[in-house]
Specification:
The complex is a heterodimer. By secondary structure, chain A is mostly helical. Among the domains of chain A are: 208 residues, no CATH class; 41 residues; 218 residues, no CATH class. Helices cover 70% and strands 3% of the residues of chain A. Chain A contains 42 helices and 4 strands. In chain A, strands 1-2 form a two-stranded antiparallel ribbon. Chain A has a two-stranded antiparallel sheet with strand order 3-4. The radius of gyration of chain A is 37 Å and the shape is elongated. By secondary structure, chain B is mostly helical. Chain B has one domain. Chain B is 84% helix and 0% strand. Chain B contains 4 helices and no strands. Chain B is elongated, with a radius of gyration of 16 Å. The N and C termini of chain B lie far apart (59 Å). The chains are: A mainly alpha, B mainly alpha. Chains A and B meet through helix 28, helix 29, helix 30, helix 35 and helix 36 of A and helix 1, helix 2, helix 3 and helix 4 of B. Chain B: It comes from Zoogloea ramigera. Chain B: Belongs to the CPA3 antiporters (TC 2.A.63) subunit F family. Chain B: One of its GO terms (cellular component) is plasma membrane. Chain B: GO terms for molecular function: sodium:proton antiporter activity.
Chain lengths: 969, 94
C-alpha cells in the first residue's frame, strides 16, 4: 500500500488544506511540508529495492471486465522522478510560505499545489497507460488553476487559459495515441507495452501512435511549435513557476518520451519528429531568451531551450543520449528551480522583475546575488557545475549522430550554447553596475528560510558539478538501467575527459557567448529593444489567439446557420427525426402475428371514445382557449385512470390520479403568466398562403407522428408476449425482495439503483426549475393583476392584492379542506406504509402529501400557509437523497454490495410481528424527495404571484385599469 | 337465475349507466359553452370514475378498488378547486 499512499496522501493533504481558514499561512505550510517530507521518507525507503533493479507493483481492480487495472509501479526511472517531485516540492512549499503575501488566500494555493503534487506522482508512478493519461490531465488542470491563482489579473486568466488549451489538447492526443498503442500491444499495462517494442515498431499503426503520443509530450514540455504557452504561464506565483513550469510538470513530456523509449524509439520517424522539434526549440528558445526584459520571461524561454535540449537527446535516441537526457533533466531541475526562486526573491524585495530597471543588486542582496550567479553559471555550462557535465554529454552526442560528414546538429548545439551563455550573462547583469535608483522598493536580504531552498539547490549544483561520481552517479545509474535495461552503455561522469571536441565546443560556447553579449549590448541596444530580431514575426501566442478567435467565429457562424432558438422549428425537426430515424435504423418490421384478442366490450370502448374525443378536442382548441384545452386534457387523464382501473391495475390508477392533479395545478400556475391572446383587429391582414401552407405541413407532421405512435403501440400489442423479465420479478418479489407488491419491490429493491438515479435527476430538475424561476420576469402584458381581481362589481377590488388574498375567497371549501388536511396526511402515511405489499409506496404517498399541502396553498394563500408551516423544500430534497444513499451505503457496513436489502422482523407491541425491510427506509427517501421536488417547483411558481403584493395598491391599479362587464373565457 | 349472475348483471347495468354519464360529461366538457360548464363536467367525470372504481371492485371482488375510490373521493376535486380558483381570481395560488 506504500505506493498508493504516496499518491493518495498529497490529495488528502489538498482536501485538508482547502478547508483551513484563509489566514492560516503557517498551518498550511506545515501541512504541505509534512506531506512532502513524509512522501520523501516513504519514497526513500524504497531505494534498496529499486537499486537492486526490482520493479515494485501494486494493483487494484478498476474495470476488470475491460482488462483495466489501477496499477502503480515504481522502477528506477519512476523512483528518481518521484524523489525529484517530492524534493523540489518540499523546497518550494518552504519558499512559498515566505513568498505568498498575507493578503493572498493561501488555502487555495496550497490545496492546488498539493493536488498537483499528487497528480504528478500519479503520472510518474502509473503502471497503466490510460491511468497515466488521467493523471496527466489532472496535472494540466492543476496547472491551469495555479496559473490563474491571481484570477483578478487579466494576464493570469489569459495565460491559464492558453496553457490549459494547449496542454489539454495535447492530453487528448495522448489519450488517442495511448489507445492506439494499447490496441497494437493488446494491453495497456506499461510492463507489457515496454516489452513489446519490436512488435510496436513493426506495426502499421506505429506512425499514428507515435505522432499522437509525441503531440501530447511536446505540448506538455512546451516544444516548438507549442512553446508559446510557457512564457504566458509565468503570470503564476513564482513558486508555481519554479515547481511546475521549470522543475516538474514541463518535464512530464520528456519523462513520457523516456518512459516509452523502449517501445517507440529507434526508428527514423522517432528521430525526425522528436529530434526535429527539439532542435528547433533549443535554438528558438535560447535566442528569444536573450531579448527578454522580464526576469521570469528570460527564465521561461531558457527553460524552453533546455527542454529542447533534452528532447533532442531523446530524439537522438542512443542509450548514451538517454542517459544524458535523464542527467540533464535532473540538473536543469536543480539550477532552474533555484533561479526561479532567486527571481522571485528579487521581485519580492525590489517590487519589479524588469531587467531594464534592475541593476547593482549585489550591494543590497549579496548572498542572493552569489547564489543566482552560481546557478546561472550552471545554466550557461561553466565547468565545475552540474550544467557543464550534461551539456558536454549533449555536445558529444550531437557529434556522434552526424558522423564525420553531417555537422548541422553540432552547429545547432554550439549556437544554443553560445546563446545560453549570452542570456545567462544578461541575467546576472542585474547584479552588477551602479545600484538602480528607480526601484519601487529598497531591497534587503530575504528571510533566512526563504533563501535556504535556493542555497540547498545551488549547493547541489556545485556538489554534482565537482564530484559527480560520488553524488549523482548511483541515482542516475538506477534511472538509466530501468529505462535501457540490457542496452545500458558504459559512461564516465568525470569532470575532466582530456582535450577533446566537446570540451572545445564548451570553450567556444563560453567565449562566443561573452562576445555575443558584448556585441549585442554595444550595437543592438539590448536593453532598449522591444522586439526580438529575426524571429519576432514568429509569434505563437498570436497564432493561438487568432485560431481561437476564428474557432469562436466559426462556431458562431455554424450556430447561426444550423441552429435556432425558436421552439417551433426545433419541435418540427424532432418530430421528423422521430418519424425518420427509427425507419432507417430498424430493419424489416417484425412479422405480424395474432395473439389472443380480448373480447369486444362496448362499455370500455365508450370510455376510450371519451378519452380520444377529449384529446382531439383539446388539440383543436389549444391555440386560443387554453383553459378549455386544460379541462379537456383533464378529461383524457380521467379516462386513463379509469382504464387502469378497468384493466385491474389500481396502483397505476392511483399514481395517474395524483399526477393528473399535480399537473393541472402546475399548468394553471403557468397559465397565469402566459401573455393574453392578441385580438385580431381590423388592421391585421388575413393569414396568407404561406401561413396556410405552414399550417398544413404542421398538421401533416403531427398526424403522421400520432399515427406512427399508434402503429408502434399496435405492433407491440399484437406481438406475442415472449419470455420477459417480468416473470422473473413476479416469481422473486416475495422471496427475494420480501414484498408482494411487485412494482414497489422492483422500484426499491431489485432496481433500486435506477430509482436512486431517477430521484437524483428529479432533485436536479427541481433545483434547476427553482433557479430559473428566481430569474423569471413576466412579460409586460401579464405583470398586471388578473382582470378578476380588478372587477368593479366586486367590492374587494378596492383592497390591495395582499388584503384580498387574506380575506377568504372560497370560504366553505377553505374551512373543510383545512380540517381534511390531517386525514390526507393519514392517507399518505397509510399508502406509504403498506406500499411494499399492496398498491402504494413512496412515490404515490409523496404525491398525496404534496397535493394535501398544495390545497392549503390554493385556499389560504402563500402568506398564510408559510406563516403557519415552515416547509423548506430544499432541505427535503437533500434529506431524502441522503436517506436513500445512506440506506444503500449501510449495506457496506455488513459487507454486502451497495443497496443490498435486508429485512428485519420486529415484534411490535400491540401490532404484532412487523417486517421492516431496509428498502422501507429507501422508500422513505423516495417519498421525501418526491415531496421536496413537487413543493419546490410549485411553490416557486406560486411565489411569482407575490409580486402583485409588493406593488402598492395605487400603483397596481394604475398598472392595469379596472375592467367592467362580463369577461368571457 | 342465481345470485352471482344477478349480481354481475346488475353490476354490468350499473357500469353501463356510469359510462353513459361519462359520455354526457364528456359532451358537456367539449361543448361548453362557458368555462364553468367545463369545470363542472370535469368534476362530474371524476365522480363517475370513483363510481366506476367501486363497481369494478364489486365485480372483481377486490378491496384495493375501494381504496382507489377513497383516494378519488378525497383528492379528485383538487383540480376542480384549482380551476374554480383560477376562474374566480385569475391565479391559483395567491
Amino acid at each position: 500500500m506504500l505506493l498508493a499512499a504516496l499518491v493518495l496522501v498529497p490529495f488528502l493533504g489538498s482536501l485538508l488544506a482547502a478547508v483551513m481558514p484563509a489566514d492560516a499561512r503557517n498551518r498550511e505550510s506545515w501541512l504541505a511540508i509534512a506531506v512532502a517530507a513524509g512522501g520523501l521518507l516513504m519514497a526513500g525507503s524504497l531505494y534498496p529495492d529499486v537499486a537492486a533493479g526490482q520493479v515494485l507493483r501494486e494493483e487494484l481492480a478498476w474495470l476488470p471486465a475491460q482488462g483495466l487495472y489501477f496499477v502503480l509501479r515504481v522502477d528506477g526511472l519512476a523512483w528518481v522522478f518521484t524523489m525529484l517531485v517530492l524534493a523540489i516540492g518540499l523546497l518550494v512549499v518552504v519558499y512559498a510560505r515566505y513568498y505568498m503575501s498575507p493578503a493572498d488566500p493561501v488555502p487555495r494555493f496550497f490545496a492546488f499545489l498539493l493536488a498537483f503534487m499528487g497528480s504528478m506522482l500519479g503520472v510518474v508512478l502509473s503502471g497503466n497507460l490510460v491511468q497515466l493519461v488521467v493523471f496527466w490531465e489532472l496535472t494540466s488542470l492543476t496547472s491551469f488553476l495555479l496559473i490563474g491563482y491571481w484570477h483578478h489579473r487579466a494576464d493570469a486568466r489569459r495565460g491559464a487559459r492558453m496553457a490549459f488549451t494547449v496542454t489539454a489538447t495535447g492530453g487528448l492526443c495522448l489519450l488517442a495515441g495511448v489507445l492506439v498503442l494499447g490496441n497494437i500491444v493488446g494491453s495497456y499495462d506499461l510492463d507489457v507495452v515496454l516489452a513489446a517494442g519490436e512488435r510496436v515498431r513493426a506495426d502499421e499503426l506505429y506512425l499514428p501512435a507515435l505522432v499522437l503520443i509525441a503531440l501530447g509530450a511536446l505540448t506538455k514540455s512546451a516544444q516548438f511549435p507549442f512553446h508559446f504557452w510557457l512564457p504566458h504561464a509565468m503570470a503564476a506565483p513564482t513558486p508555481v513557476s519554479s515547481y511546475l513550469h521549470s522543475a516538474t510538470m514541463v518535464k512530464a513530456g520528456v519523462f513520457l518520451l523516456v518512459r516509452l523509449w523502449p517501445a517507440l524509439a529507434g526508428t527514423p520517424e522517432w528521430t525526425w519528429i522528436i529530434g526535429g522539434a527539439g532542435v528547433c526549440t533549443l535554438m528558438i528558445g535560447a535566442f528569444i531568451a536573450i531579448f527578454q526584459h522580464d526576469l521570469k520571461g528570460l527564465l521561461a524561454y531558457s527553460t524552453i531551450s533546455h527542454l529542447g535540449l533534452i528532447t533532442t537527446l531523446i530524439g537522438i535516441g542512443t542509450p548514451l543520449a538517454i542517459v544524458a537526457a535523464i542527467f540533464h533533466i535532473l540538473n536543469h531541475a536543480t539550477f532552474k528551480a533555484s533561479l526561479f526562486m532567486a527571481a522571485g526573491i528579487i521581485d519580492h524585495e525590489t517590487g519589479t522583475r524588469d531587467m531594464r530597471v534592475l541593476g547593482g543588486l549585489r550591494h543590497a542582496l549579496p548572498v542572493t546575488a552569489t547564489l543566482a550567479i552560481v546557478a546561472s553559471a550552471a545554466m550557461a555550462g561553466v565547468p565545475l557545475l552540474n550544467g557543464f557535465l550534461s551539456k558536454e554529454m549533449f555536445f558529444a552526442e550531437t557529434l556522434l549522430v552526424g558522423g564525420d560528414t553531417n555537422w548541422w546538429m553540432s552547429y545547432a548545439a554550439l549556437a544554443m550554447g553560445v546563446f545560453g551563455v549570452a542570456y545567462s550573462l544578461r541575467f546576472i547583469s542585474i547584479f552588477f553596475g551602479a545600484p538602480s535608483e528607480a526601484l519601487p522598493r529598497a531591497p534587503h536580504e530575504p528571510p533566512r528560510w526563504m533563501r535556504s531552498p535556493v542555497e540547498l539547490l545551488v549547493l547541489t549544483c556545485l556538489v554534482v558539478g565537482v564530484l559527480p561520481g560520488l553524488s549523482i552517479e548511483p541515482i542516475l545509474h538506477v534511472a538509466a538501467v530501468a529505462t535501457l535495461g540490457p542496452a545500458m552503455p558504459e559512461y564516465d561522469l568525470a569532470v575532466w575527459h582530456g582535450f577533446n571536441i566537446p570540451l572545445l565546443m564548451s570553450t567556444l560556447a563560453l567565449a562566443g557567448g561573452v562576445l555575443l553579449y558584448g556585441l549585442l549590448r554595444r550595437y543592438l541596444q539590448l536593453k532598449e529593444r522591444d522586439t526580438v530580431p529575426l524571429v519576432h514575426r514568429l509569434n505563437g501566442a498570436q497564432i493561438y489567439e487568432n485560431t481561437m478567435l476564428r474557432l469562436t467565429r466559426g462556431a458562431g457562424w455554424l450556430l447561426k446557420h444550423l441552429g435556432t432558438l425558436r421552439l417551433q422549428p426545433q419541435l418540427l425537426l424532432l418530430m421528423l427525426a422521430l418519424l425518420g430515424v427509427p425507419l432507417l435504423l430498424a430493419g424489416a418490421p417484425p412479422a405480424w402475428s395474432d395473439s389472443p384478442r380480448q373480447g369486444f366490450d362496448p362499455l370500455f370502448t365508450a370510455i376510450w371514445v371519451i378519452g380520444g374525443g377529449c384529446a382531439i378536442a383539446a388539440a383543436w382548441v389549444a391555440k386560443y382557449h387554453r383553459l378549455a384545452a386544460l379541462a379537456l386534457v383533464g378529461g383524457t387523464g380521467v379516462v386513463t385512470a379509469a382504464t387502469f382501473l378497468w384493466l385491474s391495475a389500481p396502483d397505476l390508477a392511483l399514481t395517474q390520479l395524483m399526477v393528473e392533479t399535480v399537473t393541472t395545478v402546475l399548468l394553471l400556475l403557468g397559465l397565469r403568466w402566459l401573455p393574453p391572446r392578441i385580438k385580431a383587429g381590423a388592421g391585421q391582414p388575413a393569414p396568407g398562403r404561406l401561413a396556410w401552407l405552414r399550417r398544413s405541413r404542421d398538421l401533416l407532421v403531427a398526424t403522421a407522428g400520432g399515427l406512427a405512435m399508434a402503429a408502434l403501440t399496435y405492433a407491440v400489442l399484437v406481438h406475442p408476449a415472449s419470455d420477459t423479465i417480468a416473470d422473473f420479478f413476479l416469481q422473486n418479489a416475495l422471496t427475494g425482495g420480501g414484498g408482494s407488491n411487485v412494482v414497489n419491490v422492483l422500484l426499491v429493491d431489485f432496481r433500486s439503483f435506477d430509482t436512486l438515479g431517477e430521484i437524483t435527476v428529479l432533485a436536479i430538475v427541481a433545483l434547476t426549475v427553482y433557479a430559473l424561476l428566481r430569474r423569471f420576469r413576466p412579460a409586460p402584458e401579464s405583470v398586471a393583476i388578473p382582470a378578476q381581481q380588478r372587477h368593479d362589481v366586486d367590492p374587494a377590488s378596492a383592497q390591495t392584492p395582499a388584503e384580498q388574498a387574506g380575506s377568504g375567497y372560497l370560504l366553505v371549501a377553505g374551512i373543510y379542506l383545512r380540517l381534511l388536511l390531517p386525514f390526507m396526511g393519514v392517507v399518505a402515511v397509510y399508502f406509504f406504509m403498506r406500499g411494499h405489499n399492496l398498491p402504494g409506496g413512496g412515490f404515490v404517498a409523496g404525491l398525496i402529501f404534496s397535493v394535501a399541502i398544495l390545497v392549503q396553498y390554493m385556499l389560504a394563500g402563500t402568506v398564510w400557509v408559510e406563516s403557519h408551516l415552515q416547509l423548506r423544500p430544499h432541505r427535503w430534497l437533500g434529506f431524502g437523497l441522503v436517506l436513500a444513499c445512506a440506506t444503500g451505503l449501510g449495506a457496506w457496513l455488513f459487507g454486502h454490495p451497495f443497496l443490498t436489502t435486508h429485512t428485519a422482523h420486529v415484534d411490535w407491541p400491540l401490532v404484532g410481528e412487523l417486517h421492516l425491510p431496509s428498502a422501507f427506509v429507501f422508500d422513505l427517501g423516495v417519498f421525501v424527495v418526491v415531496v421536496g421536488t413537487t413543493m419546490l417547483m410549485l411553490v416557486a411558481l406560486a411565489h411569482q404571484s407575490l409580486r402583485a403584493h409588493r406593488l402598492p395598491g395605487d400603483e397596481a391599479a394604475r398598472a392595469a385599469p379596472p375592467v367592467s362587464g362580463r369577461r368571457t373565457l | 337465475m342465481t345470485t352471482t349472475t344477478l349480481l354481475s348483471a346488475a353490476v354490468y347495468f350499473a357500469l353501463g349507466c356510469v359510462v353513459l354519464g361519462m359520455v354526457l360529461c364528456a359532451l358537456r366538457l367539449a361543448v361548453g359553452p362557458t368555462a364553468q360548464d367545463r369545470v363542472l363536467a370535469l368534476d362530474t367525470l371524476w365522480m363517475c370514475t370513483m363510481l366506476l372504481a367501486l363497481l369494478l371492485g364489486i365485480a372483481h371482488g377486490s378491496l384495493v378498488y375501494f381504496e382507489a375510490a377513497l383516494l378519488i373521493a378525497l383528492l379528485g376535486f383538487v383540480s376542480t378547486i384549482a380551476l374554480a380558483k383560477f376562474l374566480m381570481r385569475g391565479e391559483v395560488i395567491e
